[in-house]
């Protein structure tokens, strides 16, 4: 990119010589204009973006030092080289004080000036490169932080509507975005996925990790700003940000889904199904949209590899949806360890199925079978069963037995959970206590919910649920709050710089830390420190 230089001197022969003698093109510059004084120079700079200013000190109307002072005051971003025939240290000192890059005495040694310009422009290019790298790094950090927040929103663990303090800095843009939602799912009832059940937890984690990487790489290579969120073992929610002006083009979005399925098939050798939410979703709609797509994928007795949900034809009936709502209540009760609620919802399911059966519903048996699969996957996330018992249940489920047998199976699963609930509750309390200790020791690192869950041997989704139940806030809320409280203490009591404190509480990027801190406290770090420390102590 060619930069622009402005020449300012009241002696016309000097500006003419500068235009002709200096090899501007070789230096990556072009002369954008010439001015006889500071007033004319400011007028030109208000119209054009200038990267370099060559300026005499003594000029009529407005001299060079006043011009430089006004440029800095107006925060016009340009480098400045002063030209003067006066060898007076007062001028040099004032020029340095205003942030002049260099100072060349007249008569102008053009070879020396060319070298000075080359050095200044090289420094400028290095700064631009560094800034771009920092912005890219900050962008990756924001994407990662946004992904953590989006996970909690999708799973309905938190409501980040309104002015929640976690929407700091660029993350508040999430509230303004609209998303394409694609849910990718492994059909655990198919013959091709039986091996998946036999894999160890370590093998499945590696496999899930590989799928996430493939999806992210494919989306990034196609220039799609995205989040890839693993919602449970064998299930992912892909969110793709779209512009406000974009209309919902089903053909284009189906093409994206085909691209993702093909990438997973080619690189991980697995076939997934894709459910696409039928319209754009805003942040506050993500949880409901996800539930609708997940319900569609689970309830469909047979569907294409890619399907839009809610289906506009041959879709789920009202009875199907009512059944699924009850089923979700049952799973929620199981997760809470609420035995009375479990019994109530099992009875409700029995009544609903009986009514559907009396009305000639051919859907009853497949509907119930798909729910049992869903229940088993959720219980697997909770690590409810020993490996042997889980294998036995999967083998039983492979046989398509009758409605009565399926209901018996549901009671068997829920009763097994209830029997283990007391031990499980104590174990869960110990796991969360261990997780808290782990988090408090590692706040200085970029912690993920997946890492914390793995540390205590729980699945990400179950760990997130337990964490919210225990602390009343999500993992990311807790970690960020602890970091901010620690930062407040360090700012109030220590002489460490803001950048040092940012690193100590887990933020590699000072600007991002500052944005989060301001959203959390209402003050920037320096102003917060000044409330607790006397002037002159601030670092």
- CATH homologous superfamily descriptor of the domain at 177-312: Reverse transcriptase/Diguanylate cyclase domain
Report the strand count: 11
Unreliable stretches (pLDDT < 50, length at least 5) are: none
Rg, nearest Å: 32 Å
Mean pLDDT, all residues:
81
| N-end to C-end Cα span | 38 Å
Q: What's the total helix number? A: 20
The level 1 CATH classification of the domain at 177-312 is: Alpha Beta
Provide the β-strand percentage band: 5-15%
Biggest β-sheet strands, sense, barrel? 6 strands, mixed
Computed structural class: alpha/beta
CATH architecture of the domain at 177-312: 2-Layer Sandwich
Share of helical residues? 55-70%
CATH topology-level fold name of the domain at 177-312: Alpha-Beta Plaits
Global morphology:
elongated
Describe the fold and architecture.
- This is Response regulator.
- Keywords: DNA-binding, Phosphoprotein, Transcription, Transcription regulation.
- GO terms for molecular function: DNA-binding transcription factor activity; sequence-specific DNA binding.
- It comes from Paenibacillus soyae.
- The protein has 539 residues and is of the alpha/beta class.
- Among the domains are: 106 residues, Rossmann fold, CATH 3.40.50.2300; 136 residues, Alpha-Beta Plaits, CATH 3.30.70; 115 residues, no CATH class.
- α12 runs parallel beside α14.
